[in-house]
């Protein structure tokens, strides 16, 4: 892969990052409930979920970032996942 192609494919938009964070939580929830998986794996998924933000919290953080006037010169999260 050429450098220009890599740079283009590596760019993540705030809405993509937000969606990915929300989907990761959903994945951890699925892992924690899947009785076909080893108990140690389900326990680890539950442990991680205790500290993982909900979809509402992630979207609210995105909204706060979009509305702030000081801070980072870019938006890390988004209030939308479209």
Characteristic key phrases:
82 residues; 4 helices; mainly alpha; 65% helix; elongated
Protein described:
This protein has 82 residues and is mostly helical. It has one domain. 65% of the residues lie in helices and 0% in strands. It contains four helices and no strands. Helix 2 crosses helix 3 and helix 2 runs antiparallel to helix 4. The longest helix has 20 residues. The model has no long low-confidence stretch (mean pLDDT 86).
> Distance N terminus to C terminus?
28 Å
SS field, number of helical segments:
4
Any low-confidence stretches, pLDDT <50, length ≥5? none
Quaternary state of the chains: single chain
Indicate the proportion of strand residues: under 5%
Sheet with the most strands, sense and barrel status: none
- Kindly state the number of beta strands: 0
Radius of gyration: 16 Å
How do the helices and strands follow one another from N- to C-terminus?
HHHH
Q: How many discrete structural domains?
A: 1
Secondary structure: helix percent? 55-70%
Chain-wise SSE layout:
Layout (H helix, E strand, L loop, with lengths): L2 H8 L3 H20 L5 H12 L4 H13 L15
Helix pairs in contact: 2-3, 2-4
InterPro entries: BPSL0761-like (IPR049723)
Summary?
InterPro entries: BPSL0761-like (IPR049723). The chain is mostly helical.
């Amino acid at each position: 892969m050429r450098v220009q192609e890599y740079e283009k494919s590596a760019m993540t938009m705030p809405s993509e990052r937000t969606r990915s964070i929300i989907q990761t939580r959903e994945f951890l929830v699925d892992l924690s409930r899947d009785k076909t998986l080893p108990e140690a794996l389900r326990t680890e998924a539950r442990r991680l979920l205790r500290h993982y933000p909900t979809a509402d919290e992630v979207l609210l953080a995105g909204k706060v970032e979009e509305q702030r006037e000081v801070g980072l010169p870019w938006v890390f999260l988004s209030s939308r996942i479209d």
